[in-house]
Amino acid sequence: MQLIVGNWKMHGRLASVALVEALVRAGPIPGARLLVCPPATLVARFAETARQSHVGIGAQDCHAEPEGAFTGDIAAEMLADAGATHVIVGHSERRTGHGETDPVVHAKAAAAYRAGLTPIVCVGETLAEREAGATLAILGRQLEGSLPGAGPLVVAYEPVWAIGTGRTPTPAEVAEVHGFIAARVPAGTPVLYGGSVRPDNARALLAVPNVGGALVGGASLTPRDFLAIASAAPGSAP
Ligand code: PEP
C-alpha cells in the first residue's frame, strides 16, 4: 500500500472542501492511501468532511513549541486538535523561504511526535548540488540532522529542482536515492518521491524500488489528477 500525499501549499478556501468531498465520494483505491495537506485554515473543516473515510488530513508545517508567544505560528498540538494525523516538516519552500535548518526541522518533527502526529520529513538537493555530484552527501547530512528519534515516520525525497518545474529525475536516479534513504531509516518507513509528479509519469516513478508513495503539489489540487496518480500505485487497478 503506497501513501499518496497532496501538498496544497498556499492554495484553497473553505469552498475547496468540495475537492475533499470528491475524493471521499470516489471511494478507496486498493493500492493507495490518500492524505491531503491543506493550509492550516482548512485542516479542521477538511478533517470533519473526511472523518470516517479513507482520506486522511495532514498539515504543512508546525512550530516546535506546544504553545507560547509565537505570533503567527501553529503548534503541532493545535493541528492534532483540528484533526490532522500527519504534518509535513522541512519542505524546501520552508528551508529556503523561512531559513529552516536541519536542527529546526528536527525540532518540528519531534514536536509532531509529542502531539501524536506522524512527521513527513522532506529532504532534497538543489540543481547545483546534483550537478556537483553532491546529492547523496547532501541527503545524508539532511537525514542525519533532520530525522527525529523513534516513532512513526514518513520521509519525502524532493529534489528542489523538480518541484513545480515539470522536470523529474530518471527512474534510475530515483532508485539510487531511495535505496540510499531506505538504508538510513527504520525498516518499513515509507519514502515518498516528490517533484512534478503528474498522472503521466506517476506509474514509472511509483514503480521504482523503495518508493513508498508520492508527495504531490500542483496536481493534488485537481481531484481527477490526484486520483489518477494514486491509481498508478503498484497494486491499484490498471
Ligand atoms: C511539493 O510541493 O511538494 C511538490 C512536489 O510540488 P509539485 O508536485 O508541484 O512539483
What structural keywords apply?
10 helices; TIM Barrel; 238 residues; 8-stranded parallel beta barrel; binds phosphoenolpyruvate; 39% helix; alpha/beta
Q: How many domains is the backbone divided into?
A: 1
CATH A-level architecture:
Alpha-Beta Barrel
Amount of beta strand: 15-25%
Bound small-molecule species: phosphoenolpyruvate
CATH class: Alpha Beta
* Most strands sheet: 8 strands, parallel, barrel
Can you offer a commentary on this structure?
This protein has helices spanning 17-26, 40-50, 76-82, 92-97, 102-114, 127-131, 135-146, 171-182, 199-206, 223-231; strands spanning 2-7, 32-37, 55-59, 86-89, 118-123, 154-157, 191-194, 213-216. It has 238 residues and is an alpha/beta fold. It has a single domain (2-231), classed as Aldolase class I (TIM Barrel). An 8-stranded parallel beta barrel has the order 1-2-3-4-5-6-7-8, surrounded by 8 helices. Helix 8 (171-182) links the parallel strand 6 and strand 7. The protein starts with a strand and ends in a 7-residue tail after the last helix. Bound molecules: phosphoenolpyruvate.
